[in-house]
Give the backbone structure.
Amino acid sequence: MKKGIATTLVSLAAMACMSQAATIRFIEVTSLPGAGGTGGSGAFFHIGEVEAFLTTTTPADGLDNANDLALSSAGASAATSSGTVQHGADTALINGVASTGAATWSRNVTPGVEVTALVDLGNSFDIGTVRLWQRGDGCCQDRLMNFTVNFYGDDGAGGVGAIVDSIAHPGQVATNSFAAFNPIPEPSSALLGLLGGLLVCCRRR
C-alpha cells in the first residue's frame, strides 16, 4: 500500500513538472548550418511573421492578431542581432502580416555565421505556443528551414535572462504555413528534490 502511494506521488510530481508554465519574455530564432534557401547571389534566411500565445489560448488556424502577444501594437519589439540585411525591416516580424516580396524579413546567410532574430514581448508571459510563418506570397519557401527557437526569461532589469527552453527545427517549414513550438520550462529545484526523495522512498519499500 505504501509503495502504491509513493508511486502515485511520484506520478503527481512528474505531472506538476510538465504543467509548469513557461514564463517567457524573449523569443530568439537562430539559423543552423544549412539554413536558408538559395536565390540571387547567395543563400537567405527569412521569416514571414512571429506569433506568441498564452497557455490559455488556442490560436486560430490563420494569423491570430486578436490573441497574438508578439505584435508591435501589443508592445513587442524586434531586432536582428546578427546577419546582414537582404531586405525587410525587423518590424516585419511582428506586424501581424505574413509579409510578401521585399517587405519580408530576410537576411543573408554566411557560412559559419548564425543569423539571429530576437523578439521582445515587452513583458513576461506564460507562453504556451509560438508560431513562425512562411512569407505570404508563396515565394522562396526553402528559406525558412534549419533553425532553433530559444526562449528566455527576463533578467530582472528588462534584459535577456536565463534560457527557459530551446527547440530545434530541422528541415523546411511547410509551404504557405507555419511551424508551432510549445516551450516547456526546466523543472524547479523544489520539484526535482521532491521527485528524487520519492524515488528513493519507492526503492526502499
Summary: Helices lie at 2-19, 189-204. The longest helix spans residues 2-19. The two ends are 10 Å apart (CA to CA).
